[in-house]
Batch of 3 targets.
Target 1
Amino acid sequence: MSILGTGIQDGLLLKPIQYQWAYDLYQQAVANTWFPNEIQLGQDMSDWKKMSEEERHALTFLMSYFNPNELLVNKALALGVYPYIHAPECHLYLAKQMWEEANHCMSFEYVLETFPIDRNQAYASHVEVPSMARKEAFGTKYIKRMTEQKLDITTTEGKRDFVRNLVAYNIILEGIWFYSGFMVALSFRQRNLLRNFASLMDWVVRDESLHLKFGINLILTVLEENADLQTPEFAREIKQMILDGVEMEEQYNKDLLPHGLLGLNADYVNQYVKYLTDRRLEELGFGPHYHVNNPAKWMAAANDVLQLVNFFEATNTSYEVNAG
């Protein structure tokens, strides 16, 4: 049995587990369960009051992007991934991931409720700021191919569209764009600002590290089980999708940091994006493309999926449901 399939009565028995990696990730995700209101975000208000307009703009801009896109990821999972897989251990993980995306949305709502951010303006930015709207249009294009057009997962082209959707969401949106934003968000803590906000982001990043690991495993499994997808042309197309994503992120980061912050500007963030992208390309079996150094050594633990998971297991186990 392959991992792909649409039979309603297939995949109704969990054991024996066929894809142990999916089951293990589900167990880890359950252990990582957390709730945003357990962080005393209000304690960061004194920092907000002394932050510059540029700093406040950056935080607001991040919330404007993250908030709707967490829900967009859920649509991609529910409409573009879940229906085309019949391995029950994968369904377990995807159900937990969808809950986590909802929890992240509520976390960013908590940020919007805590700080005096103009919610209407923040909400409007994802359609009114061209660089942000362009990223969103990129993502919605792939969901539409899964929903508004018929996708036949038994055909080579249908399977390609399935992989394209995974690359768009797991690799580009979650694995590069989100991580770029995480770095900017966590950079405030590097300057001793918004420490509680950073703790909230730590938990989001921990979840996203598992999302990324699941997505990479799923992509590689589909490619391994379907020889008809293993062509140089399709590989070139996938790599180009990822490089196009980098170009979109470069424009977005110029709007995020138009004048730069102390120790942080668009060029710095975009070098980090290129460094991240090389890691994602390597995880998918490509060679690196940009060959740049990591400018944010303090984010080293977040650059590699396995390293990140191990990092949190080592240093953040105080928030494991079954701990103690």
Target 2
Amino acid sequence: MPHHWFKSIKLMLVPALLMLALAGCGSPSVADTYPLESVSSKGATETSKVYRAANKTVPEVAKELADQNQPDEISKEDTQHMFLVYPDKLYHLQQDSAKPTDTLIEVDSKEYVRNNYDSSFLQGYILASVLDDLFDGMKTKGGYRGYSSKDIYKPSGTYHVPTTEEKKASPPITTAGKGSIIKRGSTSKNTDGSVGSSGDILKKQVEPSKSSSGKIIRNSGSSSSSSSGSFSSKRSSIFSSPKSNSPPRTKAGGFGRITKRR
């Protein structure tokens, strides 16, 4: 395979693989939109993060997240509790009992839900068949009912104010419909095509070419001269006109044939 063909194939595959990786994330991100308020974790897989959406109702936030990435299941509209089910996470949206104008967005891993939530509470919002699929037919093992009521229905772990490292650990988000990666906290613009404030790793800035470009000049009238660096349309045309436009003549000899002057 020629080298330039191989290079072209690689250039086409890189964006395609990147889009597949982004599509495989499976759930929307709230890390760059809302502040991280509280964190609970037991090991690497049992995690819960709580974000605050100020002055937004539960249905408003549910619609916003569903528009970012369609969930496998979404509970019916409710002003106090709504759930969005994704393959790897459960989004529990709940009205803050201490500040009813705000919505708390609790993002729980499957292991956290399995080991903490009350099954009967979840079944009041999510179909039992969906829960069976999410947890492979296993029931949850706790009495937890969400962060807003954690002091009454306690989880097995404890929540704490996120550290600087935990805030930095939140992954970058994707911009809807643009296929680019936005790196949080970037403020500088790079002129070498690297990731900067725009965050687009697929778009490289290119300086406009300062070199002059050639021109095609058509001859007018009978002039056959052309300027340096240009091409005459008369010389390059394959449909040149005949040297003479006089009528054809018959060849002497009485045969009556018509010949074209050369």
Target 3
Amino acid sequence: MLFRLRLHGEACLALYRPARRYMVNAAVRVGLIGTSGWAAGFHLPVLQSHDAAVVAAVCGRDRQRAAALADQHGVEQVYTDYQTMFDEAELDAVSVVTPEDLHHPMVMAALRAGLHVLCEKPMAFSAAQSAEMLAAAECAGVKHMVQFTNRGLPHYRYVKSLLDDGYVGQPYYGYFYWPTGWGPSEEVDNYHWASDARRARGAVNELGAHMIDVARWYMGDVVRVSASLRTFVQRADIDGGVMDNANDSACLLLDFASGAHAVLHVGMPNIVGPGLAHTGQTVIISGHDGSLEARCDPWTDVAVSEIVGLRRRAEQAETLAIPDDYFGGTPRGNAFDVFRRQSIGPRLFIDAIVGDLDISPNFADGHQVQRIIEAAVRSGLSGTAQDL
């Protein structure tokens, strides 16, 4: 399908409604698809924090819930069908905040309508879908972005700056670890779409997409994947029956084009909490000139951000404090406040539309992450390494 969408000139333009590329002195009208806690608590208020953006419409399957969300945030229009919203709401852009199995049809419809698209991670259910979405977005000539949240957190941005400045030199080895506390317990062993193999790829997609993107951001392109995927907690189907569970623990070995390699583990059924060093996300990068060890947990009441480094020939490791300008004047205790102040996340999406700027992470990044996830799934089934 990808080759069919790599069209140019009139053949390409005939498929898509032209986007409004320059928004000088005009607000970017955004439609939000999704009414989850993440859509309501992150995407919508962050978009509304930008002076050049107007959230003009909210779309959700449950009209009552969508209307309540719209009323709470002063959004004028409410829809239960995204295509109707695209046809009627006079939008410039859309933010797609739904489960991964719904991303492809929604994004493709938005691109046909000539809309700029911000899509939640993971970008799609399959690499074939993400390839089609990328090709269509390029064909339509719109701005496209994947919401990999770690790219905006001060902690991860500062580690990236240290790596770019040569703190570890040529990277040799990476370690990327994220255990969550999503079971086993009576409260969470019921239905959840991210564990439904009919709708999702499990932990390797839901959690892995974040950590794989960080691994690529820090260490470059991945050329080979080996994986072991396991399911430890049996969750109930949506009707209370037995569900075909996707993996809830994924261990990956990543080989990079640079010759470096990394171990990546994400898991849902972990016991985590205060006092355990492994709670949150842990990243270790070791190279020719030094090592960095970083632990990040922005979801706790008091955000955790610990970065320790050791340079070659240094007598002992040093604690590396994140400079104030990474927080943009926001309190350090809430790492997500920066998304309402700085050009990151959804605000970066709006800035790119207004200024006709390039975006990273975009659909090309999302597609590469999806390829790695799919290679991990194949490796887990076959027991063999998968080349990309």
